[in-house]
Specification:
With 836 residues, the chain is α+β, with helices and mostly antiparallel strands. The chain folds into three domains: 151 residues, Jelly Rolls (Sandwich), CATH 2.60.120; 482 residues, no CATH class; 133 residues, no CATH class. It contains 28 helices and 19 strands. Strands 1, 3, 6, 8 and 12 form a five-stranded antiparallel β-sheet that branches.
């Protein structure tokens, strides 16, 4: 009878789960009625750029009557979904005009896929126009024909460019038999963007390709990162401290991420140089040693499995593995169409990795020798010891390695979040829920990818475990006091990985020590003393080299402004509102249990986490509240780390609520499931879509076509070539390359007019870059020999123009008699400056 009742209860709960999921899917099918307009849709088609030609300098004459403009292009992806053009017209729209403007798309067999005709009085100059049509499932590699036509009194045309840029496009102006003369135009390309819709089938196919391309690197990176932690946890004092297998794996990952920078740092101080064979010897030898130390103590495989696996493995661990796999999948899909990591920061990481992989030492020992005339490094090099090690071991190209390795770290961060939450609470469900929030619905840390924030990402990988071990050291049982050496290694590693994240950690350690009334405080002091001792050489170096001419400080406009754009991104503000609403009830529960019942409460940990997050926010808000603030960090750099306290807080509270719900009557449990399942399904569906589309297209400086141009440059240009590149004012007075030219220095070693942003550490180089770019901004016509002469006077020998482009117009340079094009393909150009 009891078994039958239990089965009925399980059936009822299963039906409640299915009903909850079904309700939210039905709401989505109806178009999400009632959703606030300020919130992004839960689901929508995933669109991405297919063919892009963004240059413009001319317009063909408006097609009228039987004169038509045809543009042939080849789709690069399956799922072709829409085309975007930029309209042009003479004069403002006249309400009385009766012209019509028509766009027609056909496939290679002449089948019409879409046609749209609009009155010209509704169309404005420089108006983007999007032509949408049914998804073309097998469009990759297929040609399509776009026809632009109009009535006899049509005044509207489209923007174009006078240079043939793309290899698989063709533009022509055609006339019917009634037209006497064949029309002509100088325009050879349209200003044109096609977009494709990612389908489930293509997503799975592309994911398989990405895993095939990056699987070897990821496996090696995992073995490399886990090795130091695995060895340390084999030591007798730490062997049995972590019974939870996934928490142990997370601690191993954090320790490895911290210890490798420490090893590089100390080995370089002693004059050592890492090489590929040495690193392979360490990795292979280390894992052979671990296999020897963990050799079976019994000949019974059944007994071994029962003791070491079944006893400690739970369904939460299986769910966590599934969550990590999903997280890796969506993060790989997010970068499926790029081969260069985005933004300015990635170029910096590229050149530092190039320097360190060439020398086998930390950059503090060598400077930027052979890449930049810079001999000091007031920055953190911890992440670059990891990337340089992998470059030395694999020989893989730096951009691809940074991109793949960065996404792997991003996908692994939920593992250390789980480990940190488990250390704080010893609750598997709390860790699983916190890991879920970081993996899927939260905007950060996934958005780090669009900035190339790999140093901060690797530091945040350590932070959860650092918080958890700090809590256990001070408030845990006696056995945890032995972990202070591990904590010291994590602290040193965090400092070497990212100064700012280290600054964010310090208040947590102080709060834990203060609120525990100094309990076990001496072990924190031991940790601090050992950390400072190990860091003395680095601290001295930083004090001697930490005043670059272009330091970013709070004096920059908007430096201390609150990043409202991040707050409104995605659905994150809903989680912030939820955490804020729960804070007072959690505080009341803590007071009730602590003061009235005189016993410990689970609420202590979420309150400490919330207090830490609030204290750091307060310390960084001095300019807004009327007291001094810290110039090294700002609200922007802090806000993008708050996903961690938010996930920990909600994970712990959510697990406690679930424990409470399971103790209630069956009817209340079913009601709770009916409430939670739609919410969980909604944030999961939204989060998956958000993770796949997380990249900001504006941060993609280098495009795939730039890779071929850079490879040609490296093979064909002399070593002493100096290239003028397009640039833009990035931050403060710091300039950055604006297209693929930004990667010339780290990938080829040639010098450019705007090298990676580390040039600010050399006063003379910074003065040259600033004056060059300010004067280049005044050059309005690149067709004249005077423009080429000016470039030569600045020491330039060549010009590089990437797909994205910038100030220098290739159409004008092609008309310059003092310039010779020596490379031109798919929107990239290399010009040689001729002798006077």
């Amino acid at each position: 009878m009891e078994n039958e009742r239990r089965q009925v209860r399980w059936w009822l709960k299963g039906l409640a789960i299915l009903l909850g999921i079904g309700l939210i899917l039905l709401w989505d099918w109806w178009g999400e009625p009632g959703r606030p307009s300020t919130l992004l849709p839960m689901t929508s088609p995933i669109l991405a750029e297919d063919v892009v030609q963004g240059r413009l300098n001319a317009v063909p004459s408006a097609p009228t009557g039987d004169v038509r403009l045809t543009y042939r292009f080849v789709a690069q992806h399956n799922g072709l979904r829409e085309l975007e053009l930029l309209l042009a017209r003479s004069g403002d729209p006249d309400p009385e005009e009766n012209g019509r403007f028509t766009l027609t798309l056909t496939d290679s067999q002449g089948n019409q896929l879409a046609a749209q005709s609009l009155p010209t009085r509704q169309l404005k100059h420089n108006q983007p126009f999007v032509l949408r049509f049914p998804v073309q499932i097998d469009s990759a590699g297929r040609p399509y024909l776009l026809t632009v036509s109009g009535s006899d009194d049509n005044r509207v045309t489209v923007w174009g460019y006078t240079v043939d840029l793309l290899e698989e496009t063709n533009l022509s102006l055609e006339a019917g038999p009634l037209t006497g003369e064949s029309p002509e135009t100088d325009v050879q390309e349209l200003r044109f963007t096609s977009r494709y819709q990612l389908t489930w089938l293509d997503a799975l196919r592309r994911l398989g390709q990405l895993l095939w391309q990056n699987g070897g690197l990821m496996l090696l990176a995992l073995l490399f990162l886990l090795l130091p932690g695995a060895l340390l946890l084999q030591l007798r004092p730490f062997r049995h401290l972590l019974p939870d297998p996934m928490a142990k794996l997370g601690v191993m990952l954090a320790l490895g991420t911290a210890v490798w920078p420490v090893i590089w740092y100390l080995f370089s101080l002693l004059g050592g140089h890492f090489s590929g064979w040495l690193l392979w010897l360490l990795v292979v030898g280390g894992w052979l040693l671990i296999m020897y130390l963990k050799r079976p103590v019994t000949l019974s495989p059944r007994h071994l499995v029962t003791l070491s696996f079944r006893r400690h493995w739970h369904k939460e661990h299986t769910l966590l593995l599934l969550l990590l796999a999903v997280g890796l999948a969506v993060r790989l899909l997010a970068v499926r169409d790029i081969i260069f990591p985005p933004w300015v920061d990635s170029v910096r990481h590229g050149v530092i990795t190039a320097v360190m992989s060439q020398s086998g030492q930390t950059i503090t020992q060598t400077g930027y020798e052979s890449f930049l005339p810079v001999d000091r490094f007031p920055y953190h090099f911890g992440f670059h010891t990891l990337s340089s090690s992998l470059v030395l071991m694999t020989g893989q190209e730096i951009p691809r390695l940074l991109l793949g390795f960065g996404q792997l770290l991003n996908a692994l961060l939920p593992l250390t979040v789980y480990a940190g939450s488990w250390l704080l609470t010893r609750q598997r469900r709390a860790g699983l829920l916190a890991a879920f929030l970081v993996t899927i619905p939260l905007f950060f840390p996934a958005y780090y990818a669009t900035w190339g924030r790999y140093t901060q990402l690797s530091a945040m990988l350590l932070m959860p475990v650092l918080l958890g071990l700090t809590w256990r050291l001070v408030c845990g049982a006696k056995g945890w006091r032995r972990t202070w050496p591990l904590l010291a290694l994590l602290v040193v590693g965090l400092f070497l990985l990212h100064f700012r994240v280290f600054v964010f950690y310090v208040p947590f350690a102080g709060l834990v020590c203060l609120l525990s009334w100094g309990r076990n405080g001496r072990f924190l002091w031991l940790t601090a003393g050992a950390s400072v001792f190990l860091l003395i050489p680095q601290l001295i170096y930083l004090l001697q080299n930490s005043a670059p001419r272009q330091t970013i400080t709070a004096r920059l406009p908007g430096y201390t402004a609150f990043p409202t754009a991040y707050y409104t991104a995605g659905w994150d503000r809903l989680f912030l509102w939820l955490a804020g609403g729960l804070l007072l009830p959690i505080l009341l529960i803590w007071l009730w249990r602590r003061l009235w019942q005189g016993r410990q409460s689970w609420t202590a940990v979420p309150l400490i986490v919330a207090l830490w997050a609030g204290l750091v926010l307060l310390l960084l808000s001095g300019e807004h509240l009327g007291f001094p603030s810290i110039n090294l960090v700002n609200l922007n750099s802090y806000y993008i780390t708050t996903f961690l306290p938010l996930a920990l807080f909600l994970g712990i509270v959510g697990a406690a609520f679930w424990r409470w719900l399971r103790r209630q009557a069956e009817l209340l449990q079913i009601a709770g499931i009916l409430l939670l399942m739609p919410m969980g399904t909604a944030v999961t569906l939204f989060g998956l879509q958000q993770q796949i589309t997380i990249l900001n297209e504006q941060t993609l400086l280098a495009q795939p076509a730039d890779a071929a141009a850079l490879a040609w440059l490296d093979e064909n240009l002399p070593e002493d070539a100096v290239l003028a590149v397009n640039s833009w004012l990035w931050l403060g007075n710091t300039w950055s390359g604006s297209d693929g030219g930004a990667w010339i220095v780290p990938l080829t070693g040639r010098q450019t007019s705007t090298p990676p942003a580390d040039y600010i550490y050399n006063r003379d180089l910074a003065d040259f870059v600033q004056s060059f770019n300010e004067e280049m901004a005044t050059v309005l016509d690149w067709r004249t020999p005077e423009a080429a002469n000016w470039l030569r006077e600045q020491g330039m020998t060549h010009v590089f123009i990437g797909v994205r482009g910038g100030q220098m117009d290739p159409a004008q340079l092609l008309q310059n008699p003092a310039v010779e094009r020596i490379y031109g393909r798919n929107g990239t150009f290399i010009f040689k400056l001729l002798e006077e």
